[in-house]
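Bug: token stream looks shifted between consecutive jobs. Job 1:
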Amino acid sequence: MTHVLVTGATGMLGKYVSDALTRMNIDAVAVDRSRFELGNPQGIFDYIMESKPAAVLHLAAETDVDLCERDPQRAGIRNHLATANIAKASAACGAWMLYVSTSNVFGGSGTFEHNELDLPCPLNYYGRSKLMGELEVRRFNPINHLIVRAGWMIGGGRARDHKFVGKVIEQILNGATSLRAVGDKYGSITRASLLAEFIVWALAQRHTGTVHYSSSGIVTRHNIAEQIVAALERQVQVASVRSSDFPLSAPRPFSEGMTSIYTPTLEGAPQPGNWKDDLTQYVETFLQ
């Protein structure tokens, strides 16, 4: 069997990827969730060995940053050990593997922006567990993998977007005249639909290595909220507040902003744009 196995196919990014693969007539199979459970790394290994895919797109993860902080064992099993077994099985099958990682592997050094040559230094258990996943991919499938680090993911539309951007859009559409958003923490955004196109391109090329994939420009959530207001052409006041006004279990870095040395050099690859343009294009499609 020579198919592409997709983990996390029903999530925000996974839905975009699955739709893109369908449009390209690529034989993709979403994992059987009754047999593929991130909390059971050995079962994941066995499942892939039975499936014998030609490629594995590993999009699934425990992405609840605060839950990971409260339960580091869950983070370690689902993001580290599960990824290690996916990498082992992929290598045993001769399958190319793509692993979606996160800008949260950075932040502990206090640096404002991070490219692919900067050494990761995560500040919380979510970032650490994803970094451990990266290390296992490199260890077990060293020459047949691509690691893509994404920023603050935006996408999904009204049906799937339950994160910051979706909540802000909904509040504005429901008539809010004022909003508050954190203005002292920085990061980069990644439009999920663009990343999906890049993943399909990388699959066709069997591209390898580690790349950052995010819109240009490092921003705060306050910047994002203001741009959403502008895109919707509403009269809404957005107040900048401190992160300490929203106590959370997991520490957030001052900045996990990313830039890329390598992505712009990839000829023919779908490229992210400026953060304002990418965010505006998403807002315009939110209700579709």
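Job 2, same session, no restart:
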Amino acid sequence: MQIYMVGGAVRDALLGLPVKDRDWVVVGATPEALVAQGFLPVGKDFPVFLHPQTKEEYALARTERKTAPGYHGFCVHAAPDVTLEEDLARRDLTINSIAVSAYSTGVRGLFDTNIALNPAAWQAAGALVDPFGGQQDLARKVFRHVTAAFREDPVRILRVARLAARFSDFTVAPDTLQLMQEMVQEGEADHLVAERVWQELAKGLMENTPSRMFEVLRDCGALARLLPEVNQLWGVPQRADYHPEIDTGAHLLLVLDMSARLQASLPVRLACLFHDLGKGTTPPDMLPRHIGHEERSARLLKGICERLRLPTECRELADVVAREHGNIHRSGELGPAALVRLLERCDAFRKPQRFGDVLLACECDARGRLGLSESPYPQGPRLLDALTAAQSVATHLIATTAMATGASGKNIGELIHLARVEAVRASL
């Protein structure tokens, strides 16, 4: 029985990055042998076991054979005669197909939880197994597929795009990009289920350069299949008072990277991704203006949310940002009554914390414009001050007094609205 650390842990250690999750491959063993040593079987589609102490995953070396479209259509073969090289050959990229012997890194037995992540020692001991040139591609900063079997799993398209968002200075090898394009053209991407698409998109959005994920997806044609509403933003001119030298797609990438720079949460980054969808459907005779794009964005967003089954928190925040980001950008021109109506439409009184996220998404949009990345966004503080002033109104006293005179619920709402307007007026 031989044990190797594989995949991202080895890759990150060789790059000098922190290692978060470690994956292990066991060669020359049977499921019964691992269970006998205390490992817990958890794999449904192939033999995976949890270490009795560390709870890390240990998988038996395996090969895979494509039997049907999509990423579930595989026949898995795991047996003691499967070699490490055969297991590494089924992986996606060369940089993820490097292994290192566990025993050469300080592990003294299966139940030893210590490991020295020391790539220099690995090299000196000859413990690295790299049959596909992964170390060379790491040095060249290239994403390259291991074998043509890459095309058998459409999820790999999403993984490459996600890795590009993490390692933004890496490029996709031309032959790998061509292979991804062929996969899209052959309909492989159409077999991706909504949950998996959302899972990979969410991870990519939370990387330091999320724009790279969408560049790669667009380059291979997958964006047009997975998010056609986003893809159609490219080629559409921006408003003249934005940055006319780039289109709405390029603007979107700037906004996404600004959301990462401001360390926004996932719901905020998703709202940034979808806030301008309506610009892709602006009538040609209206360009470069985008009148009414907010409502069009909200309608398109609804379809995406249903298709990808997005979490409620993400749906609601993205909807508010899509509908109201234009009004929030212009809020410096609004008077007290208009400000209160804007707060009401954003449901800021019931969900003030979410309203703060709405403002952050709008700030990402504004600061994502060329030349404005360091500019302040005064609309945010002004609206938060207006909200604070409006919240100071004793709504329960107004309601109690009004009910004593026989006022209806609608009239009470109007009285509270007017009191909030006056409170905001006094605060400006």
